[in-house]
Specification:
It contains eleven helices and four strands, in the order H-H-H-E-H-E-E-E-H-H-H-H-H-H-H. With 301 residues, it is mainly α. It has a four-stranded mixed sheet, sandwiched between helices. Helix 2 packs across helix 3, helix 8 packs antiparallel against helix 9 and helix 9 crosses helix 11. The chain is elongated. The two termini are 31 Å apart. The mean pLDDT is 85.
């Protein structure tokens, strides 16, 4: 929840600045046209940030809700599991839920989860939102033990709410992305106008200077967004790696520790390890580090 709050504050600040900037341009055009519209007047700075907060809060809330999970499955091009695929996933999930219910004092069944399939051949699965699990086609063809192991890991993410936090943070960043797309469209239209007016000496020069001024005015906002996002990404991705370790431990506590190690050894040749710098901006820890932690947990138990 702390990361969601920080994400909301940061993006409210960015979107608020963008709203102020966009309204300044609108006021300029309206004043040139001698308009008496309410939008031709300057608002209190707090008004822009209040509007920005409502927009970011709305997107974040949608992301945190079941709607966010559904939208995520659409982006992942995942389809609802049906027929024999649903039976196969459900039967293996039921096996995992025996230990899960015992450890958490719950009484969940496979029917309590929304099960989806993604056509990727990569052996993987994803936890989304509250109770949604997406299994890849590659994992469907794996041995039952491997499927159960990965499901145990994903149940860990659902149990701790990791997937809800991730979707809420991503959704909360959409407003500023929409703002940048709007700015990009505006600049493309402005370039077309400049090209049309360039044959008129005074208007062509004035429109070109105006466009350059707008681009220069956007640079600080772009710089703040880039620097801020890098800092936030560093913290967010560090938390993602922590949640991966925690989900591994959760699977181990469900008696899937050894099979989790075998699964990680299986995927190790297909996972790009990268260098120290790239690991700082990776969602998952090094496979060898995950195996080492699981082996330590095995010794402690």
């Amino acid at each position: 929840m702390f990361l969601i709050l920080i994400n909301m504050i940061f993006h409210t600040f960015l979107v608020g600045i963008f709203f102020q900037f966009a309204h300044s341009l609108i006021m300029l055009f309206l004043k040139i046209g001698n308009s008496t519209s309410i939008f031709a007047r300057q608002f209190h700075p707090d008004f822009y940030y209040l509007c920005a907060f409502y927009v970011v809060f709305t997107f974040t809330t949608i992301g945190y809700s079941p709607i966010g999970s559904f939208i995520s499955t659409v982006f992942l091009k995942a389809r609802k599991a049906k027929g024999t695929d649903l039976e196969y996933i459900s039967s293996n999930l039921e096996e995992v839920l025996i230990a899960y219910n015992k450890n958490t004092n719950q009484n969940l069944t496979a029917k309590d989860f929304n099960l989806f399939i993604n056509n990727s051949e990569v052996v993987n699965a994803m936890a989304l939102g509250h109770k949604t699990i997406v299994v890849t086609a590659g994992l469907l063809r794996a041995e039952p033990e491997m499927l159960q192991t990965v499901l145990a890991h994903e149940l860990g993410h659902l149990h701790y709410g990791d997937s809800m936090v991730s979707i809420a943070i991503i959704a909360g960043s959409y407003p500023i992305q929409i703002c940048y797309w709007a700015n990009y469209i505006f600049m493309q239209i402005a370039r077309v106008v400049v090209m049309i007016l360039r044959f008129i000496p005074i208007l062509g020069l004035m429109s070109a200077l105006f466009m350059w001024a707008v681009q220069l005015a956007c640079l600080p906002l772009i710089a703040i967004n880039w620097i801020g996002n890098k800092i936030f990404d560093f913290v967010y991705l560090m938390n993602c790696r922590r949640t991966e370790y925690r989900a591994d431990e959760f699977a181990s506590n469900l008696r899937y520790g050894d099979s989790m190690i075998r699964f990680l050894e299986y995927i190790a040749p297909y996972v790009e390890q990268g260098n120290i710098f790239t690991q700082l901006f990776s969602t998952h820890p090094l496979v060898e580090n995950r195996i080492e932690r699981l082996q330590k947990i095995k010794v402690q138990n």
